[in-house]
Design goal:
By secondary structure, the chain is mainly alpha-helical. It has twelve helices and three strands, in the order ααααααααβββαααα. A three-stranded antiparallel sheet has the order 1-2-3, with no helix packed on it.
Length: 319
């Protein structure tokens, strides 16, 4: 089911104002890339990422990073600096591609002691229990998904600890998406703070357990803002565990990117935008926000993420 956030907290509003200041030209309709069938080798067809990115789907993770060596663990390297240029390249893996293993991703990310959000330390070291993972709802028709999406849910462990940026890298690698897309969306959703809460409501029936304060509660939690109402079985990991919280969102986005978010097939996009199809990463980010496919809310959200993606705000002094 869709994740439908309402307006966020003040700190994110300030970040959005900075991002939107250079937004002109960002909100163009995404292209209509067609992905390869499930299980087939990915092609070199251009993606629908911004023109400034010039990214193409990779054949396999190992080919994308052949001979790569990560910087020594413990170096204080800001993401995107030359010190990390030999690390894993985070290609966008086409629909049907073989995704990297968790162990492969843990071994190939850029390690660094850089931590802009020390407030995340406890959540960054916390991983779900086996019982919590076993209790996750099946990803299938009840959630508007093709049953094949459940293979992604079954790969979900949240089993990584590290700095906030190392976690975002691990998630990007595991789900086959460019890391700067994940970093940019996390800026918009939480300014990289796992403790972020949003979507306050006075409707107690949609509150996560233990959050009702007598008059209201917050519905959305975590570094990428998982809304409890539509993702009840992800609670409380969505609030407590950074790696799980981030990978749950991108597992959902990957399911959409594979063409498995079936309820979107009946949705009509805004004029000039393509119907739902596999291989449209930006469209799937918009769906995470609005629950729709290139409706106005999704279009506006995509534009904001693209602006941060282009500006690389996490490299800014004082981020």
């Amino acid at each position: 089911m869709p994740n439908r956030p309402a307006p966020r907290c003040l700190i994110r509003a300030l970040l959005l104002a900075l991002a939107v200041a250079t937004l002109a030209g960002c909100a163009t309709p995404a292209g209509t890339q067609t992905g390869t069938p499930t299980g087939a080798a990915p092609t070199s067809t251009a993606t629908t990422l911004p023109a400034t990115a010039t990214l193409t789907p990779s054949s396999t993770p190992s080919q994308a990073s052949a001979g790569a060596t990560a910087p020594a663990q413990g170096s204080a390297t800001t993401p995107g600096s030359s010190a990390g240029s030999s690390a894993y390249s985070f290609p966008l893996l086409a629909p049907g591609a073989t995704l990297p293993s968790e162990a492969y991703c843990a071994a190939h990310i850029q390690r660094s002691s850089w931590e802009p959000r020390p407030q995340n330390t406890a959540a960054n070291q916390r991983v779900p229990s086996g019982a919590q993972l076993a209790a996750l709802s099946v990803w299938g028709a009840a959630m508007g998904l093709d049953p094949r999406a459940d293979q992604l849910r079954q790969q979900m462990t949240g089993g990584f600890t590290g700095t906030t940026d190392e976690i975002l890298q691990w998630v990007a690698c595991k789900w086959g998406v460019p890391v700067d897309v994940v970093r940019a969306e996390a800026v918009i959703e939480s300014s990289w703070l796992q403790s972020t809460q949003g979507d306050q409501t006075s409707d107690q029936s949609v509150c996560p357990p233990g959050t009702w304060n007598g008059g209201s509660c917050n519905q959305s939690y975590g570094i990428l803002q998982i809304k409890y109402q539509y993702n009840t079985s992800a609670w409380p990991m969505s609030r407590d565990d950074t790696a799980f919280s981030a990978e749950y969102v991108y597992g959902m986005i990957r399911a959409c990117y594979e063409g498995w978010t079936t309820y979107l097939r009946s949705m009509t996009p805004q004029p000039g935008y393509p119907a739902y199809h596999a291989g449209d990463l930006w469209g799937c980010l918009g769906r995470w926000y609005s629950g729709g496919w290139y409706d106005q809310g999704a279009i506006d959200y995509i534009a904001k993420v693209k602006a941060v993606y282009d500006q690389k705000l996490w490299r800014s002094p004082g981020f």
